[in-house]
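Supplementary Text 2. Reproducibility record for the structural model of the 150-residue chain.

All settings were left at their defaults, and a single model was retained for analysis rather than an ensemble. We include the record here because the model underlies the residue-level annotations in Supplementary Table 4.
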Amino acid sequence: MIEEPRDQRLLRDAIALSRIALPSSSAYSVGAIIAAPDGVMIADGYSRERGPQSHAEQVAIEKALEAGADLRGSTLYSSLEPCSTRVSGLPACAARILDAGIRRVVFAMREPSIFVEGHGAEELAAAGVEVIELSSEAPAVAQINAHLIG
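Retained model, structure tokens:
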């Protein structure tokens, strides 16, 4: 169930975070926010924040768990669909979301198949996570990643 305007506001905040990530020729610039059921932010992250291989969702989850947060029932907002496969061989963000107990994911744009075939939304939904795509916000994500997706 879409919780307007909270979902749109927090997704736009995640998109704003993605602008902090330095552009890369081999990875997207993504922002992520984890919020409690009441909408209070638990943690955030952006691509390459913790090194060249770090994904936004990964960083946000790591920060939340390091702070001792219980993520069961929380919502993850990501500018881009959480990955289902990583070229690096590291655990995919969809798997990390499931492991953390996050029950809801809101994202703006599907992962383009430039690096891998992305099926994160489908994997999450199949596992019982509520997945919401707010494609009205996708143009901003495409603009931020224009160096990759033209």
